[in-house]
Amino acid sequence: MNSVTVNSPGFLTTIQDLGRFGHAHLGVSQAGAADTIALRFGNLLLGNPENTPALEMTLVGGSFTFSSDCQIGITGSDFSPTIEGRPVPLWTTTQVSSGEALKFSSTKSGVRCYLCLRGELAVPHHFGSASTHLLSRLGGLSGRSLLKGDVLGYEPLEPLTRDLFRIVSDEALEQLTPRTLIRVTPGPEMESFTEEAIRLLTTSSYEISEESNRVGLRLRGRALLRTTKEDILTEGVTVGAVQVPSSGQPIILFVEQPTTGGYPKIANVISADLPSVAQLKPRDEITFEIVDLTQARDALNAQEALITPSSLRAL
Q1: pLDDT exceeds 80 at position 210
Q2: Which of 171, 244, 249, 287 is a good FRET partner for 307, with 20 to 30 A between their CA atoms?
Q3: For the residues of the chain, what is the DSSP string, one character each?
Q4: 236-259 residue pLDDT tens
């Protein structure tokens, strides 16, 4: 079996696919890639199934050596990747040779960068997914982030011929640029907030706190006050739910979110904007826009229409 050796893991590097679904009633949240667009395009560039696991790096990338020639796709934020000191383009099919070191630096844009390989990482699947869920230590490599000296085996696919190497078009990337105006639909407890709070939600900006992670993004800004001080009965919550504790400071639940919660939900981030949330780093500022379900569905359909081979160009 071919392998990748972790020379340096970076700040936080985990194995992620598109996540595990249908197990929230067991207390198992979806996990998976935070930026699903980046993961899907990385696999599309390589001719992999879109759910093929990849390495998700956070803020600072790692360094990796390959035991044999391998075709890769690097997507997401720009971590200044190099192969033996040579710059590597993002959103492009690339070849790395046996023994060469692929190195990443710190981010120049968002939060997360993805390294996809042509082939399948040899890690077990739990509840139908290879994704790492850090809090429960489930999935990936022993349920943890990668460490220096880890060796990841993978089953390669037949190499692509050079004429099949592709790059994501500028037109697609422009339309998929991460947003800071985050679209939300009204939450089930929106009526529990004052009229002023609902106005502030869409007219003021919020800063991403340093306490944010894959569980949720804590925001700092104008407090969103409720009409009552009581929390709600604990109930199921979803990825993208904007919960508001008694402090009035919102929290966007994310891919490793608890599956239940007792804070009222003023809004919910639409599916099309969750990849943008994935690339928000501490001290970034965002604003919210309330849309209806039809607008949310149209935005998702437009986004899905871009994640196809028609958005790729020959090199």
Answers
A1: yes
A2: 287
A3: -EEEEEEE--S-EEEE-S---S-GGGT------SSHHHHHHHHHHHT--TT--EEEEESB--EEEESS-EEEEEEES----EETTEE--SSBEEEE-TTPEEE--B-SSSSEEEEEESEEE----BTTB---BTTTTBSTBTTB---TT-EEEEEEPPPPPGGG-EEE-HHHHHHTPPPSEEEEEEPTTGGGB-HHHHHHHHHS-EEEPTT--SSEEEEESS---BS--PPPPPEE--TTEEE--TT---EEE-TT--SEE-S-EEEEE-GGGHHHHHT--TT-EEEEEE--HHHHHHHHHHHHHHSSGGGEEE-
A4: 899 999 999 999 999 999 999 988
Domains of the chain (ranges; CATH) run 2-166 (no CATH), 181-306 (2.40.100.10)
**Per-residue pLDDT tens over the stretch 136-145:** 899 999 999 9
What is the residue whose two structure tokens read 């046996």?
98
